[in-house]
Amino acid sequence: MTVQRRYTLPHCNLVLEGLSDNADDPLSPLTVLMNAECYLPGATDATLTGGREFLDSLVAAVSRYGQRLLSGVPYPTATGSVPPMVDVKPGEGPYHHLIVQQQPLGEPVSDVNAQPPLDVKLSTVQFYDLMEAVDQLLADSQTLPDLTAQFQAVSRRLVQPTEPITQRAAPAALGAAVLAAAGLALFFVPLPEFEPTQPETESVAPAESSTAPTDAPAADGDVGGEAASEPSSGENDLALADNAPAITDGATVVLLQGDVARRLQTAWADAPRPVSDLVYRIAVSEDGDILGYRYENDLALAEVDNTPLPELTFVPVDGAGRVQERVAQFVATFTPDGEVVLEPTENPETTAAAEALPELTSKVGDGDRIRALNSELYDRILDQLEPLSASEALRFRVRLTEDGEIVGYEPTNAAAGLLVAETPLPSLVTATDSTADQVDFQVVFTEGGVLEVSPWDGWPQ
Amino acid sequence: MPVDSPPAPQPPLVLETLVAQGLPSDECPRRARIQLDLLLLAIEALDLVGSEAMLTAARDLALDGLVKSRVHLWLLRGTNPMRRYSQRRPLHTEEAKALVMIICTLSRRLTVLVRQLLVGYQQLRDRELSPEHHFRLADYLSRFRSHFRARMNPRRAGVIAYSSDEKLNQLAIELLQQLLLCSGVLGPQRLWSSLFDGEVS
Q1: Chain B residue with minimal CA distance to A123?
Q2: Sheet holding A95-100, edge to edge
Q3: Which of A70, A93, A153 sits opposite B181 (nearest CB)?
Q4: Does A128 lie at the interface with B, CB-CB under 8 angstroms?
Q5: Is B82 inside a domain boundary?
Q6: Closest residue of chain B to A124, computed from CA coordinates
Q7: HSE-up of B24 (CA within 13 Å, CB side)?
């Protein structure tokens, strides 16, 4: 018995004709399809007709395209095979194209009578109606029960990348090309020649030497780790420091004294206390770096590892020339009480120039003469006096002959000993070996820049 | 027979039509989370009481166990990585199925409106007119734009792509088409399998 099933939607009529399973039972399902017709009013006047092959192809194409619209992932088309009988492709804007390969009714398919495929332009709503008609057919268990929906997500392997391979490879290829070009260009650039830095250039800019990594701890005044040297190397440094020019600026020396004493005290805070004083002679650069040290008593040698000196000692970079820096020398005493006492040593140069004066043998006794010599000395010193850098008064004992020749002088306080070179006194000494009657004067350069000269034994009555 | 434990909760029957795809794990991929949230956003733009309707639909479909409350629904939608307050929790397949059912149920109720809007959009395009000439369509588009901008994180790369009104309108129209396709008899199955396109092995 011929059965007709009709699925009607506003823009699509799907009509199936076939034979039911059991001719006697009106409720038996349609199992054999004879003809399928699809009307698309509003889209095309043509009627799409076909048998089971047409219907299967229509169902598959519509399902595929519907899923594509939902996910945006294009379904890969089988390549190399004949185009499917029904296919749906995206059109411009909101349109879709239903493409149907037509074949004449009742005639075998051949190249001779092939017709161009029918292209139906569908709007989204029209396509939806077509899909809904197909869905209703699929959901209808009374029609073609063997035709059921097959929903399968597109496999990852079948998804075509959204960008073609050439486009994806472009950045990598560009990068490789740039690298090659850069390599080629740099090939012609000569290698820079390494020249070891000369000592002269370093002494001009001593700060450069402290930029080397191994210098950093000492330069910063921190306790260095690996930079700590053997005691012997520190002692060698002191030998060099002996030959180095001394720092004669009293203010700098006082500043260094306080700075180094504080650092030694801090670094020594946790060390075990010695049984008696440890005395070292240390050389300090203008930057405050401890350039070297030497023990002054035997206990100091034995206990050197308990003091912070090895760690704080500045280690110059190997290979670089030794910098001739100006140094100040101190005597550092580590007491059993845990204190670090730092005192400036007597500058060898200074002590040589201003040696202690011998006891006066024959004094000038004439009071008028003493007054005249006093004012004469005052004038001579004042003539050559330059501004001093002292932060305290410099006191000297100056010895004159009866004729006014300066026999010698002697600093009477520490600052005076350090800063004697800044005073005019060394250049005024004229008669060191005079045997005439002599007289002593006290010469004071105050920190305010005032010169005071008075007889050593007081003004004569 | 006495039992010492409550019966294991059965998954809602309505979800049985959605077969599990060959997913590597129980968690939904990124694109599926974005897609579900955007479709719900489009429903909200179509229906002024859309968010309330979602909860009602969940109750009607006996999905209370999966979409428990308004806050829970918000948490589920927050799995969309484009969101301003994106949640780090995963979206499990059962929860995604519940969202699919809610979307399809609501889109079926809105079919008439969706068809009108799509037909109107097509007519405007044929005459090369802007969407502002269709009152309902312009209303939907502006509401979608404001919803989108209020809830999505503008610093996200995926959101930056929709910085202009035109691009957001385009997205809204695409979602409208997808809602239409969801409203059919096999809409849930179609939407469900489309969520995993390109994700299954």
Answers
A1: B122
A2: A86-90, A95-100, A118-123
A3: A70
A4: yes
A5: yes
A6: B177
A7: 7
Print the domain residue range for A341: 199-345
pLDDT digits (tens, 9 = 90+) for A327-376: 788 888 888 887 888 887 765 444 444 456 777 777 777 888 888 888 88
In 3D space, the residue among A68, A318, A107 whose CA is nearest the CA of residue A214 turns out to be: A318
The reply to whether A181 falls in a domain is no
pTM for the full predicted model: 0.55
Report the complex ipTM.
Answer: 0.89
Residue B200's beta-bridge partner residues?
A: A155
Regarding whether A226 and A103 lie in a shared domain, the answer is no
Question: What token pair was written down for A299?
Answer: 């206990």
Write out chain B residues lying below 8 Å of A157, CB-based: 201
pLDDT, tens only, A272-315: 778 888 888 888 887 778 878 888 888 888 877 778 887 777 77
Does the beta carbon of A101 lie under 8 angstroms from any beta carbon of chain B?
no
Distance CA A425, CA A422 (A): 8
Q: Which residue of A has its CA nearest to B119?
A: A125
Dihedral sign computed on CA atoms, order A370, A371, A376, A377: positive
